[in-house]
Amino acid sequence: MIGKLNHVAIAVNDLDAAVALYRDTLGATVSEAVEQPDHGVITVFVELPNTKIELLYPLGDNSPIQGFLNKNASGGIHHLCYEVEDIHAAKDKLVADGMRILGSGEPRIGAHGKPILFLHPKDFCGTLVELEEV
Ligand SMILES: CC[C@@H](C(=O)O)C(=O)SCCNC(=O)CCNC(=O)[C@H](O)C(C)(C)COP(=O)(O)OP(=O)(O)OC[C@H]1O[C@@H](n2cnc3c(N)ncnc32)[C@H](O)[C@@H]1OP(=O)(O)O
Ligand SMILES: [Co+2]
After folding, report:
1. CB distance 67 to ligand 1 below 6 Å
2. Lower CB count within 10 Å: N or C terminus of the chain?
3. Which residues are 10's β-sheet partners?
4. Domain extents in the chain
5. How far, CA to CA in Å, does 9 sit from each of 88, 93, 95, 106, 129?
6. Which intervals hold domain VOC (predicted)?
7. Looking only at Cα atoms, what is the longest distance across the chain?
8. By the 8 A CB rule, do 56 and 76 touch?
């Protein structure tokens, strides 16, 4: 079902410092910061030859990453995003297999303008998983 690794997301407490680290210290190509009000985060994408790093910073009072940052003061790997061809077919199979879809349970539009959904970390080896239809 899953295809390529679309991105690895890292939650950060200092977005400017994280951008400087990837752009200036590691020499990567880094996007502008984009507010994602529907998701309660600000995103910066770091382009790598084989995948992307998504730097996440909280936006608003109810950011879904705030609890994670409260527990991880230095930030840390927040989720992995795998590509799927048909997100509704993927969702139906996962639900049939007893996996929990987070939020409303229905796909939403993500940072790349494509449908995404999130799977509960307790169902996936302690790792929050995002699926993105490509
Ligand atoms: C920009 C759009 C999009 C894209 O296109 O790329 C994005 O990436 S948006 C990114 C931000 N959005 C989300 O993360 C949405 C899905 N996340 C959630 O719904 C919540 O963050 C959560 C996963 C349900 C966690 O909610 P929270 O309130 O912080 O914690 P809980 O207490 O409910 O956590 C239960 C349990 O799970 C552990 N946990 C929490 N977050 C993670 C994580 N990122 N990775 C691994 N484990 C995680 C948490 O520690 C709790 O465990 P216990 O302490 O053992 O109970
Ligand atoms: Co993501």
Report:
1. yes
2. N
3. 55, 77
4. 5-133
5. 23, 25, 24, 21, 10
6. 4-134
7. 46
8. no
Both tokens of 109, joined, read 């539009």
Q: Say if residues 97 and 47 touch (Cβ distance below 8 Å).
A: no
Q: Which tokens in the block code for residue 77?
A: 């790997």
Rounded-to-integer distance, Cα 120 and Cα 56, Å: 18
ipTM attached to this prediction: 0.98
Looking at all shown ligands, the one closest to residue 118's CA atom is 1
Residue 18: pLDDT band with limits 50, 70, 90: very high
Tens of pLDDT, residue by residue over 46-92, are: 999 999 999 999 999 999 999 999 999 999 999 999 999 999 999 99
Task: Report the CATH fold assignment for 5-133.
Answer: 2,3-Dihydroxybiphenyl 1,2-Dioxygenase; domain 1 (3.10.180)
Q: Name the token pair of 59.
A: 């936006």
